Each structure stands twice: as structure tokens, then as C-alpha cells.
Give the backbone structure.
Amino acid sequence: MIRITVLGGAAACPNPGQGCSAYLLETDGHRLLLDCGPDTLATLQEHIAIDELSGIIISHLHADHALDLVPLRYGLKYMPGLARRSVPLWLPPDGRAFLAGLATVLAHGEVAEDFFEEVFHITEYAPDQPLQLGELTIRFRPTRHYIPCWACRIETAGRAIVYLADTGPFPELIPFTEKADLVICEGTYRDVPAGLPIELRGHLTAREAGTLAAAAGAGRLLLTHFWATLGVQALRQEAEDAFGRPVDVAAPGLVIEIP
Ligand SMILES: [Zn+2]
Ligand SMILES: [Zn+2]
């Protein structure tokens, strides 16, 4: 069984009562955090303690997907009562340099070189190679975004979950998502932005999320990475119209279980 707990789901700025991108993926052997966007650690701790994480995977280095690594670092270092004070962290290529840059402005009297390294076992994943974590096989695929960004497909025991992170539309997303039991797909826009060529778009509409999930034959669609000001019900409706079935819409604490 795979359980996904939504910790956020806002686009680049938190929605009322909802932080940005972060999802807890649990199996018998793993408690894995997919992205670590702002305002999501409080929700995480309603489910597990921070030292119960078995690892963190970051899709790309935009702040709305990575910024809560900062308070997580402080928690792992200073929070009383933890049994463990380090967590494996898989970053995209160049992620270590990104964190080193953050540390130089945040360290304030602490040693910048150790700031993140002392609480995170940091590895930069190789996106062209599968990452094997016990029984989990994780494959990456570059998305179409404003900076390098990787979607991931997580498979175990005949089940597959695809997290598309941030992406514009392009055909290769469909085979990557093929027959996933659950696709976590962004719906940043309500309407296609006028005057923006498709090859320059780094995000999807909610309708495109539904179309993609349908074309891939996905079992379920979790619509996420949206601006609440666009109207959550309208975004849901557009995604459902295209998917042809009910859609889950990201909300903090929402749990989806794939048996
Ligand atoms: Zn992004
Ligand atoms: Zn984003």
C-alpha cells in the first residue's frame, strides 16, 4: 500500500490555510517527502515527527518547492526530543551549490559549510539513472519549466505514482505518466496564458492536467500547485471535465491510499 498525504498544494505563494508543494509518501518501509515548500512543516508534524522522515526528494530549486528545508534544518538540529538528527536529502543536479549559497546568507554565527550538511545526508541524484531506495524504484524525467526540473515516477509492488512537479505541456509527459495509479499534477493556470507560445510555458492549466491524466490512463488525478484566487471549484470542474472522472484537489492533510 502506498499512502500520499498532501501537506501543501499552493502555487508560488501559499493559499489561505495551505502551503506550497510538499507530499508525504508512505509505504511499509518509507516515509518520503516529495518537495519541501514553504508553510508545510506544521502540517507534516500533524502526521509524523520530522525525524521519522526516511528521506526527502526535491524536484527543482524554486523556493516554493524547497524553502522549508530551512526550518527543517533548524528543527533537526535544535528541536528537543528527537531520536535522529539527520535525514537523507536527494537534490537535483547543482542542488548542493544552491544550499551552500543559502547557507552563506543564513548561517549567522554558525558555520556555513555545516549549516545544511550536518543535518542532511545530501546526494545529488543523477536524473538519467533510476534511484533505488529499498523496494522503491524512482525514475526521473526533465519537465518543461523555467529552470531545470524533474518529474518522478515512483514504483513499488506493481504500483506507480507519478509526481510531475512544475511543467508546461509536452507530449512526452504522457508515456512517463502511463497507467500510473495516481498522478500528482499541477494546474497553475485556469486559462491558457494569451500570447505565450506553448513551448515557452512552464505550467499547465487544470484542464490540461485532466487531459494528460486521461491520455495516460491514470487511475487517479490529484490536482495541485494552484492559485486559490482562481477558484478552487472552477479548477476542479475543469480538471474533471477533461479527466472524465472525479479529481482529488490538494488540501492540507488530504490522504490518498493506493492499495
Ligand atoms: Zn517551479
Ligand atoms: Zn512551483
Q: What stands out?
A: Residues 12, 21, 62, 64-65, 166, 225 surround zinc ion (ligand 2) (CB under 6 Å). The chain has one domain: 2-258.
